[in-house]
Specification:
Elements: E1 4-7, H1 23-36, E2 40-44, H2 50-58, E3 68-74, H3 86-93, E4 98-104, H4 107-114, H5 118-134, E5 138-144, H6 146-152, H7 154-167, E6 171-176, H8 183-196, E7 201-205, H9 212-222, E8 226-229, H10 243-253, H11 261-264, H12 267-278, E9 295-296, H13 299-307, E10 325-326, H14 334-343, H15 353-368, H16 376-386, E11 395-404, E12 412-421, E13 424-432, H17 435-450, E14 458-466, E15 477-484, E16 489-496, H18 499-516
Parallel strand pairs: 1-2, 1-8, 2-3, 3-4, 4-5, 5-6, 6-7, 7-8, 9-10
Antiparallel strand pairs: 11-12, 12-13, 14-15, 15-16
Domain Pyruvate carboxyltransferase: 3-265
Enzyme class: transferase
Keywords: Amino-acid biosynthesis, Branched-chain amino acid biosynthesis, Isoleucine biosynthesis, Transferase
Length: 518
């Protein structure tokens, strides 16, 4: 059975706190969604802002593989003829093959929010849908607040669906707009609706109770053939149903085809790409597509997974374009260490002197506050240094940092650095907005002449974590530096009671790791 995916990242997802998509952002995301195999892409509400109007103009020039672009609007306003309503006029001018029209299905909203009569609301639904159908549009009727309305006044909620049906709606999408309906309630209500309508049903769930994905799954299992959601669960308040979870659940767990196997394998990449466009941190623990979704830290887990992955994995990570990761810590056993050594191309034998030395060093460092889950490049360097496989590319002799601020003017920082590289003493100065930026610039001045390859290295993220807040300004800090070049990305870590020293350790490891791969 084929399920249609309706993505509203560009409309509902754009209402996420902290997201502000540019026109170019929206076009990029639309192309990614089409590549993923999404059937409907809701581009926005053309009657609400100029940016959405520009999107509908621009997307016409973008060749799409299969997705239909959808424009969104409310029904006509109370006591206004549908042909005279500016929102409806703008909706049709968006010139999309399909439209999504939402109408109130909870009597409380009709009387207290719209301030109109129940009968007028029914007329608004029917007339708006019929007008859009007459204009040649495929119409999805979004039954707003349907579940709450059904629980409070079943008869009226069903009258709203009947009005949309009489208007000619192609799909009736049942919306849990407040996100408070639980899966067992949805199951019963969808069954009741299915018995009283012949129209295809859809589901639009919000995540305010943490149940949006489960609600969507239950609704499809009962009767719904269209699922509305957003990538990464973006959306107002607690977000919408997360398509990054829904798609693999439908395809791999329920046997309901929605995308091709090849498209499913792009899920992780596209999810992360959209997170970058949204400029929001990607949750490492997001199901299916998160960096930690198939990560194993406990020694017993790793020992089992290396023999039979299904012992601690519910599906193969490559099916959704993700990968299995083994992390190392003082809590993990020798199995983790051996797996990582093999991954790094290091011949390390169980019970060997080297293995014991690495484990002891690891425990000592983690006692000091190191954590290598996000600093795997530093761990690879640690392992290879302990095994005598690599030597430091540079030796610090000293560095000095000066900060200058005059009155209300900007703060400038200068770093002076003295290194020994390839047996020769090297000096350099660097300026920056802060001490780490200045240090990084000074370090590069020395090394780029000797190792020009590091010109491609970019610092992409910098995180500081206070490890012992009770110590106040004397507390230890852990610094994670994320770096990348044209081909890969890596993380390094440094720990100290001095944030500059901790940053220096992470910065040097980042450069050393780049040189390690040359």
């Amino acid at each position: 059975m084929s399920i249609k995916l309706f993505d509203t990242t560009l409309r509902d997802g754009a209402q996420t706190e902290g997201i502000s998509f540019s026109l170019e952002d929206k076009l990029k995301i639309a192309k990614l969604l089409d590549e993923l195999g999404v059937h409907y892409i809701e581009g926005g509400w053309p009657g609400s802002n100029p940016k959405d109007i520009e999107f509908f103009k621009a997307i016409k020039k973008v060749p799409l593989i299969q997705a239909k672009i959808v424009a969104f609007s409310s029904t006509r306003r109370p006591n206004v003829k549908v042909e005279d309503d500016k929102n409806i006029e703008t909706l049709l001018k968006a010139d999309t093959p399909a439209v999504a029209i939402f109408g109130k299905c909870w009597d409380f909203h009709v009387t207290d929010a719209l301030k109109t009569t129940l009968e007028e609301n029914l007329a608004m639904i029917k007339e708006t849908v019929a007008y859009a159908k007459k204009a040649g549009k495929e119409v999805i009727f979004d039954a707003e607040h349907f579940f709450d309305g059904f629980k409070k006044n079943r008869t009226y909620a069903m009258k709203c669906l009947k009005a949309a049906t009489e208007g000619g709606a192609d799909v009736l999408c049942l919306c849990d707009t407040n996100g408070g309906t639980l899966p067992h309630e949805v199951e019963k209500i969808v069954w009741d609706v299915k018995r009283e309508t012949v129209k295809p049903l859809g589901i639009h769930a919000h995540n305010d109770s943490g149940c949006a994905v489960a609600v969507s799954e239950v609704a499809v299992n009962v009767a719904c053939v269209q699922i509305q959601g957003t990538m990464n669960g973006y959306g107002e308040r607690c977000g919408n149903a997360n398509l990054c979870s829904i798609i693999p659940i439908l395809q791999l767990k329920m046997g309901k085809q929605c995308v091709s196997d090849e498209q499913l394998q792009k899920l992780t990449e596209i999810s992360r790409h959209i997170a970058e466009i949204a400029n929001l941190p990607m949750s490492a623990h997001q199901p299916f597509v998160g960096r930690s979704a198939f990560s194993h830290k406990g020694g017993i887990h790793v020992s089992a997974v290396t023999k039979h992955p299904e012992t601690y994995e519910h599906l193969k990570p490559e099916l959704v374009g993700n990968e299995r990761r083994v992390t190392v810590s003082e809590l993990s056993g020798v199995s983790n260490l051996l797996v990582k050594a093999q991954e790094y191309g290091v011949n390390l034998e169980k019970g060997s002197k080297e293995a014991k030395e690495v484990m002891q060093t690891l425990k000592d460092l983690e006692h000091q506050g190191y954590s290598f889950e996000e600093g795997e490049a530093s761990f690879e360097l640690l392992l290879k240094r302990t095994m005598g496989l690599v030597k430091p590319a540079l030796e610090l002799i000293e560095f000095k940092i000066q900060t200058l601020k005059k009155g209300e003017g900007e703060t400038r920082v200068k770093a002076e650095i003295v290194l020994k590289v390839k047996g020769k003493k090297q000096k350099a100065e660097g300026e920056g907005d802060g001490p780490i930026n200045a240090l990084d610039n000074a370090l590069r001045k020395v090394l780029e002449n000797i190792y020009p390859q590091i010109k491609t290295v970019k610092l992409t993220d910098y995180k500081v974590r206070v490890l012992d807040s009770a110590s106040g300004t004397a507390a230890k800090v852990r610094v994670i530096v994320e770096s990348s070049d044209e081909a890969r990305a890596w993380g390094t870590v440094g720990v100290s009671t001095n944030v500059i020293e901790a940053s220096w350790l992470a910065l040097v490891d980042a450069i050393e790791y780049k040189l390690l791969g040359l």
